Amino acid sequence: MNNGSAGHEEEGGAWSGSAGAEAFAAVEAATDWLLGYPFVFEALSRRIGADEVLVDYGCGPGAVADRAARVLGARVLGVDTSAEMLALARSTAPSVAEFHLVRDGRVTGLPDGCADAVMCNHVLASLPTEEALLGVFAEMRRLLRPGAPLVLLSTDPACTDLAYTSLRVGAEGASYRPGEEMPLRLLRRDGTWQEVRNHAWPVDRLPLLLGSARFREITQRRPTVDEALALADPGLVDRYPWTAERAEPPLVITSALAA
To answer: Residues in domain Methyltransferase type (predicted)?
Structure first.
């Protein structure tokens, strides 16, 4: 492991129940905090002002939503399919204004066009079919006012050859068909590894799906370590060598506007 820590792998499935919520909250996510979330916030900062409404679709335990509220000054609403995740987020993400449960594919308590922006981080990999992807895109489009931005953060399922600082994508050297089940291992803060089962969605497939879900001006960006030096926390930048991240950055930001 390139972070120099010793650990063991533990089998895991979906982030379900209170134990799943606590396990997710224990993930370190160093690679995401270097090459992912700062660039999501940067993309949103060009489009959303202070006190405007930002929905974090799939907020999990709320750490990213909480940081977004602090960085952007937005009124952040966290939504998730897991009541246990939302309960954890309510206790650990004080900057998030509200939390809403997704039930039967629809966010409860939020009307059409209520959001000035939506961010969605690593949710798509939990979805098994294109139909499910389109359903999520349609719900995010429902929440957005016309012309408002959507910013997605995804792990490229083709990045299976390298051992990243806080994640391992698939089996080494393997390739996966769209929607195929794929293991993902995530480093916990205690040095152990959590394995979950994701689904492989090629990042170059997302623009077509977003277009069919009534999004426009779709762009993609693969942040690099050199670009992250000006955005990420300096302590994080200095903590690891980021060898694999420099060789082949694994995260992709997809941005679009609601038509």
So the answer is: 55-151
